[in-house]
Amino acid sequence: AKKNTKKDNKNQNLRCPIVCVLGHVDHGKTTLLDKIRKTRVAKREAGGITQHIGASEIPIDVIKRLCGDLLKMLKADLKIPGLLVIDTPGHEAFTSLRKRGGALADIAILVVDINEGFKPQTVEAVNILRQCKTPFVVAANKIDLIPGWNSKEGPFILNFNEKAQHPNALTEFEIRLYENIIKPLNELGFDADLYSRVQDVTKTVCIIPVSAVTGEGVPDLLMMVAGLAQKFLEDRLKLNVEGYAKGTILEVKEEKGLGTTIDAIIYDGIAKRGDYLVVGLPDDVLVTRVKALLKPKPLDEMRDPRDKFKPVNEVTAAAGVKIAAPELDKVIAGCPIRIVPKDKIEEAKEEVMREVEEAKIEVDDE
Ligand code: GDP
Fold first, then answer.
1. Residues 79, 14: contact at Cβ < 8 Å?
2. At 236, phi and psi to the nearest 5?
3. Is 3 exposed, middle or buried (0-12, 13-18, 19+ CB in 10 A)?
4. Helix 218-232 × helix 29-37 angle, to 10°
5. How many beta carbons lie within 10 A of that of residue 274, not counting itself?
6. Residue 248 near residue 99, CB atoms below 8 Å
7. Fewest CB atoms within 10 Å of the CB: 112, 181, 197, 281?
8. What helix, strand, coil percent values describe the chain, rounded to 5?
9. Contact present, 36 and 125 (Cβ < 8 Å)
10. Is 230 in the pocket of ligand 1 (CB under 6 A)?
Protein backbone atom coordinates (compact mmCIF):
# COMPACT_ATOMS: atom_id res chain seq x y z
CA ALA A 1 0.00 0.00 0.00
CA LYS A 2 2.87 2.29 0.87
CA LYS A 3 4.39 1.79 -2.52
CA ASN A 4 1.12 2.79 -4.19
CA THR A 5 0.88 6.05 -2.30
CA LYS A 6 4.32 6.97 -3.41
CA LYS A 7 3.47 6.22 -7.01
CA ASP A 8 0.28 8.27 -6.81
CA ASN A 9 2.16 11.22 -5.45
CA LYS A 10 4.63 10.97 -8.23
CA ASN A 11 1.88 10.96 -10.80
CA GLN A 12 0.25 14.02 -9.32
CA ASN A 13 3.39 15.87 -10.19
CA LEU A 14 3.29 15.11 -13.87
CA ARG A 15 2.83 18.28 -15.86
CA CYS A 16 0.90 18.67 -19.11
CA PRO A 17 2.88 17.62 -22.17
CA ILE A 18 3.56 20.54 -24.54
CA VAL A 19 2.17 19.80 -27.99
CA CYS A 20 3.15 21.53 -31.23
CA VAL A 21 1.43 21.25 -34.64
CA LEU A 22 3.52 21.12 -37.85
CA GLY A 23 2.87 20.45 -41.53
CA HIS A 24 2.68 21.83 -45.05
CA VAL A 25 0.82 25.07 -45.72
CA ASP A 26 -2.92 24.61 -46.35
CA HIS A 27 -2.97 21.05 -45.03
CA GLY A 28 -5.18 22.26 -42.17
CA LYS A 29 -3.02 23.08 -39.13
CA THR A 30 -4.94 26.23 -38.19
CA THR A 31 -8.35 24.67 -38.80
CA LEU A 32 -7.41 21.65 -36.70
CA LEU A 33 -6.16 23.84 -33.84
CA ASP A 34 -9.39 25.84 -33.98
CA LYS A 35 -11.42 22.67 -33.89
CA ILE A 36 -9.46 21.41 -30.88
CA ARG A 37 -9.89 24.75 -29.11
CA LYS A 38 -13.64 24.67 -29.68
CA THR A 39 -13.85 21.16 -28.28
CA ARG A 40 -16.52 21.16 -25.65
CA VAL A 41 -18.03 18.17 -24.06
CA ALA A 42 -21.80 18.15 -23.44
CA LYS A 43 -22.85 21.67 -22.60
CA ARG A 44 -23.82 21.37 -18.97
CA GLU A 45 -20.79 19.39 -17.94
CA ALA A 46 -18.15 21.44 -16.25
CA GLY A 47 -14.74 21.92 -17.70
CA GLY A 48 -13.48 22.80 -21.08
CA ILE A 49 -10.47 24.32 -22.72
CA THR A 50 -8.50 26.81 -20.65
CA GLN A 51 -6.94 29.65 -22.57
CA HIS A 52 -3.31 30.41 -21.76
CA ILE A 53 -1.09 33.03 -23.32
CA GLY A 54 0.01 31.47 -26.62
CA ALA A 55 -1.41 28.06 -25.80
CA SER A 56 -4.60 26.18 -24.94
CA GLU A 57 -4.93 23.60 -22.21
CA ILE A 58 -7.20 20.61 -22.72
CA PRO A 59 -7.89 19.03 -19.34
CA ILE A 60 -7.62 15.27 -19.21
CA ASP A 61 -11.29 14.97 -18.15
CA VAL A 62 -12.35 16.56 -21.41
CA ILE A 63 -10.22 14.12 -23.38
CA LYS A 64 -11.58 11.18 -21.37
CA ARG A 65 -15.18 12.22 -21.88
CA LEU A 66 -14.63 12.81 -25.60
CA CYS A 67 -13.12 9.37 -25.99
CA GLY A 68 -15.52 7.31 -23.90
CA ASP A 69 -15.06 3.62 -24.65
CA LEU A 70 -12.25 4.39 -27.04
CA LEU A 71 -9.97 4.77 -24.01
CA LYS A 72 -9.86 1.00 -23.61
CA MET A 73 -7.57 0.96 -26.64
CA LEU A 74 -4.86 2.63 -24.57
CA LYS A 75 -4.53 -0.15 -22.02
CA ALA A 76 -3.32 2.43 -19.51
CA ASP A 77 -4.83 5.09 -17.29
CA LEU A 78 -4.20 8.64 -18.31
CA LYS A 79 -2.48 10.31 -15.38
CA ILE A 80 -1.25 13.50 -16.99
CA PRO A 81 -3.35 16.57 -16.11
CA GLY A 82 -4.04 17.38 -19.77
CA LEU A 83 -2.37 18.68 -22.90
CA LEU A 84 -0.92 22.13 -23.45
CA VAL A 85 -1.25 22.82 -27.16
CA ILE A 86 0.80 25.70 -28.59
CA ASP A 87 -1.57 28.00 -30.52
CA THR A 88 0.88 28.97 -33.28
CA PRO A 89 1.39 26.17 -35.78
CA GLY A 90 4.39 25.63 -38.04
CA HIS A 91 8.06 24.73 -37.98
CA GLU A 92 9.10 28.20 -37.04
CA ALA A 93 7.17 28.14 -33.81
CA PHE A 94 8.50 24.65 -33.14
CA THR A 95 12.15 25.47 -33.76
CA SER A 96 12.12 28.78 -31.91
CA LEU A 97 10.63 27.06 -28.88
CA ARG A 98 13.80 25.59 -27.53
CA LYS A 99 15.04 24.44 -24.21
CA ARG A 100 18.22 22.86 -23.04
CA GLY A 101 18.87 19.71 -25.06
CA GLY A 102 16.36 20.22 -27.85
CA ALA A 103 12.85 21.22 -28.57
CA LEU A 104 10.51 22.60 -25.98
CA ALA A 105 7.56 20.68 -27.38
CA ASP A 106 7.32 17.23 -25.83
CA ILE A 107 5.35 15.78 -28.70
CA ALA A 108 4.24 16.93 -32.15
CA ILE A 109 1.26 16.48 -34.42
CA LEU A 110 2.29 16.36 -38.07
CA VAL A 111 -0.68 17.40 -40.19
CA VAL A 112 -0.82 15.87 -43.68
CA ASP A 113 -3.69 16.25 -46.15
CA ILE A 114 -4.51 12.60 -46.89
CA ASN A 115 -5.58 13.56 -50.42
CA GLU A 116 -2.44 15.52 -51.27
CA GLY A 117 0.15 13.56 -49.36
CA PHE A 118 3.69 14.62 -48.51
CA LYS A 119 4.90 18.04 -49.69
CA PRO A 120 8.27 19.76 -49.22
CA GLN A 121 7.32 21.27 -45.87
CA THR A 122 6.04 17.91 -44.66
CA VAL A 123 9.42 16.34 -45.36
CA GLU A 124 11.15 19.30 -43.74
CA ALA A 125 8.99 18.92 -40.64
CA VAL A 126 9.78 15.20 -40.37
CA ASN A 127 13.49 15.99 -40.60
CA ILE A 128 13.24 18.63 -37.89
CA LEU A 129 11.34 16.23 -35.61
CA ARG A 130 13.90 13.53 -36.23
CA GLN A 131 16.78 15.90 -35.48
CA CYS A 132 15.15 17.04 -32.24
CA LYS A 133 14.16 13.45 -31.38
CA THR A 134 10.61 14.66 -30.80
CA PRO A 135 8.02 11.87 -30.91
CA PHE A 136 5.13 12.59 -33.24
CA VAL A 137 1.85 11.29 -34.56
CA VAL A 138 0.43 12.01 -38.00
CA ALA A 139 -3.00 13.61 -38.29
CA ALA A 140 -4.14 12.45 -41.74
CA ASN A 141 -6.45 15.38 -42.36
CA LYS A 142 -9.34 16.14 -44.73
CA ILE A 143 -10.77 12.62 -44.74
CA ASP A 144 -14.16 14.24 -45.40
CA LEU A 145 -12.88 14.92 -48.94
CA ILE A 146 -12.31 11.24 -49.71
CA PRO A 147 -14.90 10.45 -52.42
CA GLY A 148 -18.00 8.97 -50.80
CA TRP A 149 -16.68 9.31 -47.23
CA ASN A 150 -19.44 9.83 -44.72
CA SER A 151 -17.71 12.03 -42.17
CA LYS A 152 -19.16 12.92 -38.81
CA GLU A 153 -18.00 14.43 -35.57
CA GLY A 154 -16.60 12.03 -32.99
CA PRO A 155 -14.22 9.09 -32.90
CA PHE A 156 -12.89 7.99 -36.27
CA ILE A 157 -12.67 4.38 -35.24
CA LEU A 158 -16.43 4.14 -34.68
CA ASN A 159 -17.06 5.55 -38.15
CA PHE A 160 -14.59 3.28 -39.90
CA ASN A 161 -16.56 0.18 -40.89
CA GLU A 162 -18.82 -1.22 -43.59
CA LYS A 163 -21.96 -0.03 -41.82
CA ALA A 164 -20.90 3.59 -41.82
CA GLN A 165 -19.01 3.73 -45.14
CA HIS A 166 -19.55 2.61 -48.71
CA PRO A 167 -17.02 -0.11 -49.72
CA ASN A 168 -15.60 2.18 -52.41
CA ALA A 169 -14.97 4.91 -49.86
CA LEU A 170 -13.15 2.41 -47.62
CA THR A 171 -11.00 1.27 -50.55
CA GLU A 172 -10.24 4.85 -51.51
CA PHE A 173 -9.29 5.57 -47.90
CA GLU A 174 -6.87 2.64 -47.77
CA ILE A 175 -5.23 3.68 -51.05
CA ARG A 176 -4.72 7.28 -49.94
CA LEU A 177 -3.53 6.21 -46.50
CA TYR A 178 -0.91 3.95 -48.02
CA GLU A 179 0.20 5.93 -51.07
CA ASN A 180 0.09 9.40 -49.55
CA ILE A 181 1.21 8.81 -45.99
CA ILE A 182 2.59 5.37 -45.12
CA LYS A 183 4.78 5.06 -48.22
CA PRO A 184 6.42 8.50 -47.99
CA LEU A 185 7.06 7.93 -44.28
CA ASN A 186 8.67 4.58 -45.09
CA GLU A 187 10.87 6.34 -47.63
CA LEU A 188 11.99 8.70 -44.90
CA GLY A 189 12.90 5.75 -42.70
CA PHE A 190 9.81 5.57 -40.49
CA ASP A 191 7.57 2.59 -40.05
CA ALA A 192 3.98 3.87 -39.93
CA ASP A 193 0.43 2.57 -39.82
CA LEU A 194 -3.16 3.42 -38.99
CA TYR A 195 -3.03 3.87 -35.21
CA SER A 196 -5.50 1.08 -34.47
CA ARG A 197 -3.25 -1.38 -36.33
CA VAL A 198 -0.03 -0.42 -34.57
CA GLN A 199 1.36 -3.16 -32.35
CA ASP A 200 4.33 -1.35 -30.88
CA VAL A 201 4.05 2.41 -30.64
CA THR A 202 7.77 2.68 -29.89
CA LYS A 203 8.60 1.40 -33.36
CA THR A 204 5.74 2.54 -35.56
CA VAL A 205 4.43 6.05 -36.17
CA CYS A 206 0.70 6.22 -35.44
CA ILE A 207 -1.51 7.74 -38.13
CA ILE A 208 -4.82 9.17 -36.97
CA PRO A 209 -7.32 10.05 -39.72
CA VAL A 210 -9.14 13.30 -38.98
CA SER A 211 -11.27 16.00 -40.46
CA ALA A 212 -10.59 19.42 -39.02
CA VAL A 213 -13.89 20.52 -40.57
CA THR A 214 -16.27 17.87 -39.21
CA GLY A 215 -14.25 17.04 -36.11
CA GLU A 216 -14.03 13.36 -36.99
CA GLY A 217 -11.00 11.72 -35.41
CA VAL A 218 -10.25 14.55 -32.97
CA PRO A 219 -10.96 12.30 -29.93
CA ASP A 220 -8.69 9.57 -31.36
CA LEU A 221 -5.97 12.14 -31.99
CA LEU A 222 -6.07 13.68 -28.51
CA MET A 223 -6.16 10.25 -26.90
CA MET A 224 -3.12 9.03 -28.81
CA VAL A 225 -1.13 12.21 -28.15
CA ALA A 226 -1.93 12.00 -24.44
CA GLY A 227 -1.21 8.26 -24.30
CA LEU A 228 2.08 8.46 -26.14
CA ALA A 229 3.31 11.46 -24.20
CA GLN A 230 2.57 9.72 -20.93
CA LYS A 231 4.16 6.47 -22.05
CA PHE A 232 7.40 7.86 -23.45
CA LEU A 233 8.00 11.07 -21.68
CA GLU A 234 7.22 10.34 -18.08
CA ASP A 235 10.64 11.48 -16.93
CA ARG A 236 10.47 14.61 -18.98
CA LEU A 237 7.00 15.39 -17.65
CA LYS A 238 7.91 15.10 -13.99
CA LEU A 239 7.23 18.50 -12.59
CA ASN A 240 9.85 20.09 -10.46
CA VAL A 241 7.39 21.33 -7.83
CA GLU A 242 10.02 22.65 -5.48
CA GLY A 243 12.05 24.23 -8.18
CA TYR A 244 11.88 27.59 -9.87
CA ALA A 245 10.37 28.21 -13.25
CA LYS A 246 12.17 27.46 -16.51
CA GLY A 247 10.79 28.71 -19.79
CA THR A 248 11.27 30.14 -23.24
CA ILE A 249 10.10 33.42 -24.75
CA LEU A 250 7.41 32.98 -27.38
CA GLU A 251 6.89 36.64 -28.23
CA VAL A 252 7.84 40.12 -27.12
CA LYS A 253 4.87 42.49 -27.13
CA GLU A 254 4.04 46.06 -26.34
CA GLU A 255 0.89 46.27 -24.21
CA LYS A 256 -0.98 49.45 -23.31
CA GLY A 257 -0.36 50.32 -19.70
CA LEU A 258 2.19 47.53 -19.22
CA GLY A 259 4.99 48.57 -21.55
CA THR A 260 7.09 45.84 -23.16
CA THR A 261 5.97 42.41 -22.00
CA ILE A 262 6.98 38.87 -22.88
CA ASP A 263 4.76 35.92 -23.65
CA ALA A 264 6.50 32.82 -22.37
CA ILE A 265 5.95 29.10 -22.15
CA ILE A 266 6.92 27.72 -18.74
CA TYR A 267 7.94 24.08 -19.11
CA ASP A 268 9.08 23.30 -15.59
CA GLY A 269 8.67 24.54 -12.03
CA ILE A 270 6.60 27.34 -10.52
CA ALA A 271 6.83 31.02 -11.42
CA LYS A 272 6.07 33.54 -8.64
CA ARG A 273 5.22 37.21 -8.89
CA GLY A 274 7.86 39.37 -7.24
CA ASP A 275 10.67 36.90 -8.00
CA TYR A 276 13.48 37.75 -10.37
CA LEU A 277 13.30 37.21 -14.10
CA VAL A 278 16.60 36.07 -15.60
CA VAL A 279 16.78 36.15 -19.42
CA GLY A 280 19.60 34.71 -21.53
CA LEU A 281 20.32 37.15 -24.37
CA PRO A 282 22.68 36.40 -27.28
CA ASP A 283 25.58 38.24 -25.61
CA ASP A 284 24.30 39.20 -22.21
CA VAL A 285 22.06 38.22 -19.31
CA LEU A 286 19.21 40.41 -18.13
CA VAL A 287 18.11 40.28 -14.50
CA THR A 288 14.92 42.14 -13.68
CA ARG A 289 11.97 41.82 -11.31
CA VAL A 290 8.64 40.24 -12.25
CA LYS A 291 6.06 43.01 -11.89
CA ALA A 292 3.10 40.92 -12.99
CA LEU A 293 2.23 37.43 -14.19
CA LEU A 294 -0.77 37.61 -16.46
CA LYS A 295 -3.23 35.11 -17.87
CA PRO A 296 -5.97 35.85 -20.38
CA LYS A 297 -9.16 37.03 -18.76
CA PRO A 298 -12.14 34.76 -19.43
CA LEU A 299 -14.55 36.45 -21.86
CA ASP A 300 -17.31 36.73 -19.26
CA GLU A 301 -15.03 38.68 -16.93
CA MET A 302 -13.87 41.09 -19.60
CA ARG A 303 -15.70 44.36 -19.06
CA ASP A 304 -13.45 46.43 -21.23
CA PRO A 305 -11.76 44.92 -24.32
CA ARG A 306 -8.53 46.74 -23.41
CA ASP A 307 -8.55 44.96 -20.09
CA LYS A 308 -7.52 41.59 -21.48
CA PHE A 309 -5.40 40.12 -18.73
CA LYS A 310 -5.84 38.85 -15.25
CA PRO A 311 -2.95 39.06 -12.77
CA VAL A 312 -2.04 35.89 -10.89
CA ASN A 313 0.40 35.27 -8.06
CA GLU A 314 1.94 32.14 -9.46
CA VAL A 315 1.95 29.90 -12.49
CA THR A 316 2.72 26.18 -12.54
CA ALA A 317 4.20 24.39 -15.55
CA ALA A 318 3.30 23.63 -18.23
CA ALA A 319 1.73 27.00 -18.96
CA GLY A 320 1.70 29.99 -21.24
CA VAL A 321 1.95 33.31 -19.39
CA LYS A 322 2.50 37.00 -20.07
CA ILE A 323 5.20 38.60 -17.92
CA ALA A 324 5.44 42.30 -17.23
CA ALA A 325 8.81 43.55 -15.96
CA PRO A 326 11.09 46.54 -16.46
CA GLU A 327 13.84 46.56 -19.12
CA LEU A 328 12.32 44.01 -21.47
CA ASP A 329 13.06 46.10 -24.57
CA LYS A 330 16.25 44.16 -25.36
CA VAL A 331 14.87 40.64 -25.17
CA ILE A 332 13.91 38.55 -28.19
CA ALA A 333 11.76 35.52 -28.95
CA GLY A 334 13.47 32.20 -28.28
CA CYS A 335 15.53 33.43 -25.32
CA PRO A 336 15.63 31.08 -22.31
CA ILE A 337 14.24 32.42 -19.03
CA ARG A 338 14.20 31.54 -15.34
CA ILE A 339 12.04 33.02 -12.61
CA VAL A 340 13.86 32.71 -9.29
CA PRO A 341 14.13 34.03 -5.75
CA LYS A 342 17.03 36.37 -5.01
CA ASP A 343 19.43 33.69 -3.75
CA LYS A 344 19.15 31.71 -6.98
CA ILE A 345 19.95 34.52 -9.40
CA GLU A 346 23.58 33.53 -9.95
CA GLU A 347 22.70 29.89 -10.58
CA ALA A 348 19.97 30.93 -13.02
CA LYS A 349 22.36 33.29 -14.84
CA GLU A 350 24.81 30.46 -15.41
CA GLU A 351 22.08 28.16 -16.64
CA VAL A 352 20.68 30.55 -19.22
CA MET A 353 24.16 31.55 -20.43
CA ARG A 354 25.02 27.91 -20.99
CA GLU A 355 21.78 27.42 -22.86
CA VAL A 356 22.44 30.40 -25.13
CA GLU A 357 25.95 29.12 -25.87
CA GLU A 358 24.62 25.67 -26.71
CA ALA A 359 22.01 27.13 -29.04
CA LYS A 360 24.80 29.06 -30.82
CA ILE A 361 26.80 25.89 -31.35
CA GLU A 362 23.74 24.13 -32.75
CA VAL A 363 23.19 26.97 -35.21
CA ASP A 364 26.85 26.83 -36.29
CA ASP A 365 26.50 23.12 -36.92
CA GLU A 366 23.69 23.52 -39.43
P1 GDP B 1 -2.72 25.61 -42.63
O2 GDP B 1 -2.04 26.49 -43.65
O3 GDP B 1 -2.05 24.29 -42.53
O4 GDP B 1 -2.92 26.26 -41.31
O5 GDP B 1 -4.17 25.26 -43.25
P6 GDP B 1 -5.59 25.89 -42.92
O7 GDP B 1 -6.08 25.42 -41.61
O8 GDP B 1 -5.54 27.35 -43.16
O9 GDP B 1 -6.50 25.17 -44.01
C10 GDP B 1 -6.33 25.39 -45.40
C11 GDP B 1 -7.66 25.19 -46.09
O12 GDP B 1 -8.08 23.84 -45.98
C13 GDP B 1 -8.80 26.03 -45.52
O14 GDP B 1 -9.60 26.48 -46.58
C15 GDP B 1 -9.55 25.06 -44.65
O16 GDP B 1 -10.92 25.37 -44.54
C17 GDP B 1 -9.36 23.76 -45.40
N18 GDP B 1 -9.41 22.59 -44.50
C19 GDP B 1 -8.65 22.38 -43.42
N20 GDP B 1 -8.94 21.20 -42.85
C21 GDP B 1 -9.90 20.65 -43.60
C22 GDP B 1 -10.62 19.41 -43.54
O23 GDP B 1 -10.44 18.55 -42.66
N24 GDP B 1 -11.55 19.18 -44.53
C25 GDP B 1 -11.79 20.09 -45.51
N26 GDP B 1 -12.73 19.78 -46.41
N27 GDP B 1 -11.13 21.24 -45.60
C28 GDP B 1 -10.19 21.53 -44.67
1. yes
2. -70, -25
3. exposed
4. 90
5. 13
6. yes
7. 197
8. 35, 30, 35
9. no
10. no
Tell how strand 107-113 and strand 136-141 pair up: parallel
Instruction: Tell me the torsion sign for CA atoms 276, 278, 279, 285.
Output: positive
Atom 25 of ligand 1, nearest CA residue: 142
By the 8 A CB rule, do 97 and 265 touch? Answer: yes
Confidence band for 43, pLDDT divided at 50, 70 and 90: low
Residue pair 329/61 in contact by the 8 Å Cβ criterion: no
Nearest ligand 1 atom to the CA of 210 is: 23
- For 276, the 3-state DSSP assignment is strand
Number of the ligand 1 atom closest to the C-alpha atom of 143: 23
> Dihedral of CA 273/11/220/92: which sign?
positive
Any atom of ligand 1 within 6 Å of the Cβ of 142: yes
Parallel, antiparallel, or unpaired for β 107-113 and 18-23? Answer: parallel
At position 58, the amino acid (one-letter code) is: I
pTM above 0.95, yes or no: no
- Spatial separation of the C-alpha atoms in residues 98 and 335, rounded to whole Å: 8
Q: Cβ atoms within 10 A of the Cβ of 333, count?
A: 16
Give the residue whose CA is nearest to atom 9 of ligand 1.
Answer: 28
Average pLDDT for the chain = 90
Distance 26 CA to ligand 1 centre (A): 6
Q: Say which residues have a Cβ less than 8 Å from residue 182's Cβ, sequence separation at least 6.
A: 192, 193, 207
Task: Give the mean pLDDT of 42-63.
Answer: 80
